[in-house]
Design goal:
Beta-lactamase, nine-stranded mixed β-sheet, 12 helices, 16 strands, 16% strand, globular
């Protein structure tokens, strides 16, 4: 499906100079011609053509892409459809399930509480959630099962932030203790349809076997869900209220929620599965991603605030958060949310000798590039990034003074190469 959109170029200078029309903090973003921030409109056309090509070929239902440099926006485009069945066009203010992109915001919440003297990242989690003071570890044995041994030390908040606690993602991406986690009713990262508060889910997690001894292995898991429950305990607020007070309202992130208000439900993008032959099918038809209504206030229990994967947001809102981190904790209005030290700690590799991936380590909520040559992709050392299970991605390149937020909605992508081309085509458009 082809939904025509404005193409960035010399003829559109007047249009891109207009202020962004979404969100209370929209006036903070200044739309500029690409050349004003060292990018080429002619070269950005290659990016536009490629993204539109994915839509025209039926490989992608819709895309929203925002590129910012030094707090200005030379490129903010939407392509295709929010929902293929209705033909509703994808718009700049379309709302997406951002899944694991939630983690960076929750990690920032922990840093804020440290700044307020309410915790230290070196603290044991059990200091605030007592059932976590003593945990157990599952060690694979010769029979194909595992033996249980005591954890050698308490899991710390820092272990959660860096995914080195040994906490698995339920029985998903596990392979050792998966049966125990599945039997406890924690099958994976997806909590949107549950009617159990995250604090209660996290309480049940504490008695289950972990994948590794604390601080010894990088293992992607429910770490940030535990951190979300800890934030609730320390702040005395439900996680949604804490985020609203500390981040969303100060940053003008007016379209970011765990569950959407009814009057915004029609802006939620549909999730699709893509087969290897390129065929797109709504993911909910396979029972994998839940019904649209699961994400809307009043259409479900709406009590499970997953710090690891629960938020919905727009490209505008998420980019505003990333720009604050890039800018050392200061909003585009000049208001301070976090200290420069907190944002530095968040975007510094803390994994050290713990194996993560060649050329990168992990900070507090972000992958951090330590050797771009080893990573082998366009970018610079110091870049921090992550993405979401629904094929959304983002990165911040401090050397290039750039924030990139890319949203689509897929359960299965069928080998799609859009994210790799996205990166190559953005960097080739930087000429200064």
């Amino acid at each position: 499906m082809h939904v025509p959109k404005m193409i960035m170029g010399a003829a559109s200078v007047a249009a891109i100079a207009a202020l962004l029309a979404t969100g209370a903090a929209a006036d903070e973003w200044r739309r500029v011609a690409p050349e004003a921030v060292g990018m080429s409109a002619e070269r950005l056309q290659r990016l536009t053509d490629a993204m539109q090509g994915y839509v025209d070929d039926g490989d992608v239902a819709g895309i929203v892409l925002l590129i910012a440099r030094d707090g200005k926006v030379p490129y903010f485009e939407s392509f295709g459809a929010r929902d293929l069945a209705s033909g509703s066009p994808m718009e700049e203010d379309t709302i997406f399930r951002i899944a694991s992109q939630t983690k960076a915001i929750i990690s920032a919440g922990a840093m804020l509480l440290q700044e307020e003297g309410l915790l230290l990242v070196e603290d044991p989690v059990g200091k605030y959630l007592p059932e976590w003071m003593s945990t157990i570890v599952g060690v694979p044995n010769d029979t194909g099962g595992f033996d249980v041994v005591p954890a050698e030390r308490p899991i710390t908040i820092r272990d959660l932030l860096t995914h080195t606690s040994g906490v698995p993602y339920g029985s998903w991406q596990n392979g050792v203790t998966d049966a125990a986690w599945d039997a406890a009713g924690i099958p994976g990262w997806y909590f949107a349809s549950d009617d159990e508060p995250i604090r209660d889910i996290v309480r049940r997690m504490a008695s289950l076997p972990m994948l590794a001894q604390p601080g010894t292995k990088w293992a992607y898991g429910n770490n940030i869900d535990v951190l979300g429950a800890l934030i609730e305990e320390i702040s005395g607020q439900p996680l949604d209220a804490f985020l609203r007070d500390r981040f969303f309202e100060p940053l003008g992130m007016d379209d970011t929620y765990f569950f959407l208000p009814e009057d915004k439900a029609d802006r939620l993008a549909t999730v699709y599965d893509r087969a290897e032959d390129g065929t797109l099918t709504p993911a909910a038809e396979a029972g994998a991603m839940g019904d649209q209504g699961d994400y809307v206030v009043g259409h479900g229990p709406n009590v499970t605030f997953s710090g690891g994967a629960g938020l919905l947001s727009t490209a505008h809102d998420y980019s505003v958060f990333l720009e604050m981190i890039r800018n050392g904790g200061v909003t585009m209005d000049g208001d301070r949310i976090l200290s420069p030290m907190s944002t530095t700690l968040m975007t510094t590799d803390h994994t050290g000798d713990i194996a993560f991936r060649p050329g990168a380590g992990f900070g507090y909520g972000f992958q951090v590039a330590t050797d771009q040559g080893a990573l082998g992709i366009p970018g610079h050392d110091g870049e921090f990034r992550w993405g979401g299970a629904y094929h959304s991605t983002y990165w911040v390149d401090p050397e290039a003074e750039m924030v990139v937020t890319y949203f689509t909605q897929f359960g299965e992508t069928g080998g799609l190469d859009d994210q790799a081309k996205l990166r190559a085509l953005i960097y080739q458009a930087i000429v200064n």
